[in-house]
Amino acid sequence: MNTNLSKLDDHTVVCSAKGCRVNAAYGLLWNNPKLHTPERRKTWLACENHADSLSDFLSKRGFLKDAVPVSELTDEMS
User: Fold this and answer.
1) Which of 17, 12, 1, 3 is nearest to 71 (CA)?
2) How many CB atoms lie within 10 A of CB 73?
3) 13-60 residue pLDDT tens
4) How far, in Å, CA of 75 to CA of 78, rounded?
């Protein structure tokens, strides 16, 4: 899974799920407290089909901080 914004061009981002090339709908903002400062946010991108499974993976580890529509992502969130 890619932890950076996967830009195909200036307007298209794809899902971070392995092998998925579908346009992302959500940005999953996460943080591993053992590795990152509390304010740091890493981003996984998720399409409609993978949003739940990627969110569940991060949530079970206590990493998921927020989920936002792709349109709300900023460069600081990557």
Assistant:
1) 12
2) 18
3) 999 999 999 999 999 999 999 999 999 999 999 999 999 999 999 999
4) 6
